[in-house]
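Field log, afternoon session.

UNIT: design team B
ACTIVITY: writing a sequence onto a fixed backbone
BACKBONE:
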């Protein structure tokens, strides 16, 4: 079961889902969604749960435009700041980390 968390940075915050297996046994994964989906899309959920079932802690997150219900992506600087904040949140808890995404 995923736990909801907030990812914060100087420019804002977004909702994220944290899935930690009972017995972590692999690299943690930061999983980003594509422009047409969010972290609750069935494909992202399936990957998050599948990786966790194999022992990988997984963090998914929404970019700010998805959290606010907009369809158009934010500026590159905002997307990168959000992604960096999600990475830093995960890096405080696990090492190594694999960056992954769906387009």
């Amino acid at each position: 079961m995923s736990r909801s968390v907030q990812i914060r940075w100087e420019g804002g915050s977004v909702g994220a889902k944290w899935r930690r297996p009972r017995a972590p046994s692999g690299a943690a994964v930061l999983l980003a969604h594509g422009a047409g989906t969010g972290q609750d899309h069935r494909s992202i959920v399936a990957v998050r749960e599948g990786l966790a079932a194999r022992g990988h802690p997984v963090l998914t997150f929404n970019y700010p435009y998805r959290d606010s219900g907009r369809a158009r992506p934010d500026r590159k600087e905002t997307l990168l700041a959000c992604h960096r904040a999600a990475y830093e949140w995960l890096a405080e808890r696990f090492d190594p980390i694999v960056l992954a995404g769906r387009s």
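LOG NOTE: The radius of gyration is 13 Å.
NEXT ACTIVITY: expression trials, pending approval
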